[in-house]
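Aim 2 progress. For PREB protein, the working sequence is reproduced below.
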Amino acid sequence: MKKTLEFKAHDGEIEDIALGPDNKVVTAGRDFQCCVWQQDQLVMGLRWHENLPGIPDKAYRYQACRDSGTFLGLGTVTGSVAIHIAFSLQRLYYVKEAHGIVVTDVAFVPESRPGRELLGGHEAALLSVAVDSRCKLHLLPTRRSLPVWLLLLLCAGLIVATILLLQLAFPGFL
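Predicted structure tokens for this construct:
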């Protein structure tokens, strides 16, 4: 093996590292940060006190991370588990103290046939393992969204309504 890149990712030790799509790397460090990197450039980061204000950052830190491509799964030293959208780090799922103590690893259920059976109608499934000798399955409910046809219909209605309002406000507009 040959080293191709070296940079300072965290102040202190790195607790976990995960490879993501598009050559991105996710790191969780003892400095209370979780970072997404592209080569040696910070793409985005989570700091504990910004993510969960009101909870002292010295008592909590990210311990484990996994990036499925769409989602980022995180475990903490306090046993909490979270799922974020990978590209924006918006939190979609959070269970405070899902385990009694340190989450040592998290992993997304693969999208294979048996994995899809576990998912059921859910968008993602994350397994968490902790020092409390338990493995838990966390299911992310499918987010509701508007069908594309309904969105297009609403846009067309908005355009027609705008034209009618302009015609009323300015007779002879058309």
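Residues 15 and 138 are 22 Å apart (CA to CA). This observation will guide construct design in the next reporting period.
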